[in-house]
Amino acid sequence: MLIVLTGIDGSGKTTAAHALVDSARAEGRSALLLSNHAARRRMSLLSMRYGWKVAPRVADFIETGVRLFNVLVNHARARQFDGLVVMDRHLHCQLALRQASGLQRGRLLPWLLEKLPAADLHMHFDADPTVAHERVTARGTDQETVADLRAFRDAYRSLPEFDDFVVVDANGEPDEVMAQVNRMMAAKVSVGA
Length: 193
Description:
- The chain has 193 residues and is an alpha/beta fold.
- It has a single domain, classed as Rossmann fold (3-Layer(aba) Sandwich), CATH 3.40.50.300.
- The chain contains 8 helices and 5 strands.
- The two termini are 12 Å apart.
């Protein structure tokens, strides 16, 4: 089973991804966590440290290259794995980032989304930007503004693929969010059985 998790920074998708894999392994099932990062956090930290201002098109070029590499490698790994595969982020994230930055969608990423194996379940972690901002600030590893997070959230919601996502209310505590995730997974398994 392939599960993809998306959402804005601070929505809790990485925490949920780890919890899903840990829970499956605790039950004796095979599970694999694959991260499709885009080096965005690292670029943000370097920009802050050295006072660089990276142009949106340059940032997108770098992020798209890194994310594309990770997605393709991780789909190859997922194809070889027998068990639960959880992907933290996907190409949809880059499409939403492009939208939020005022860049065009392009052709390559949508084409690849059609060609790559579809997720059995795509859960989108929808968090209020102010809640997400508090979480990002608390972890202290990167910086996002509420305005940027709001634009990112709006961009996700404007994606043509958004209607196919199962939306998780990610504003609650981690155990509340995981209860939703577990119900959604159970519903998917019972439908597929």
